[in-house]
Amino acid sequence: MKADQPTLNKVIFIDSSTGDEFVTSSTLTSKETKEIKGETYYIVRTEVTSKSHPFYTGKQTLVDTQGRVDKFRKRMEMAKKMQAKSEDAEKTEE
Q1: Residue 22: phi, psi to the nearest 5?
Q2: Contact between 45 and 14 (Cβ < 8 Å)
Q3: Model confidence band, residue 32 (pLDDT cutoffs 50, 70, 90)
Q4: How far from 92 is each of 29, 74, 84, CA to CA, in Å?
Q5: For the range 37-43, what are the long-range contacts, defined as Cβ-Cβ under 8 Å and sequence gap of 24 or more?
Q6: Mean pLDDT on 66-91
Q7: Distance in angstroms (rounded) separating the CA atoms of residues 78 and 36
């Protein structure tokens, strides 16, 4: 047996986006603690959990941090305008 076994701590994982709390045990610790029924739990904040992840909630959202979708839509609009202009030019030549 190994001499250095990890210690399990009582932990509350808190979803930052929804505020949901998951009480469990983990080897993680933190500086924040919370008392529940006379017992001290470490608080670990997470950004995404099963309560907020789009796959589990069914709410798919498009995250575009660099404006790529807008750039693509603008290019598509320009392409449609150019195509319409070229079709109009062909009609006037005939």
Answers
A1: -120, 115
A2: yes
A3: very high
A4: 75, 27, 12
A5: 39/10, 40/10, 41/10, 41/11, 41/12, 42/9, 42/10, 42/11, 42/12, 43/11, 43/12, 43/14
A6: 84
A7: 60
Q: How many residues does the chain have?
A: 94
Beta strands in the chain (DSSP E): 9-15, 21-26, 33-36, 39-46
Dig out the tokens for 48 from the structure: 């995404």
Encoding tokens for residue 79? 């392409």
Q: Which two tokens stand for residue 50?
A: 């099963």
Q: How far apart are CA 10 and CA 67, in angstroms?
A: 42
Binning pLDDT at 50, 70 and 90, where does residue 91 land? confident
Q: Which amino acid is at 29?
A: T
How far apart are the C-alpha atoms of 94 and 81, rounded to whole Å? 20
4-10 average pLDDT score: 88
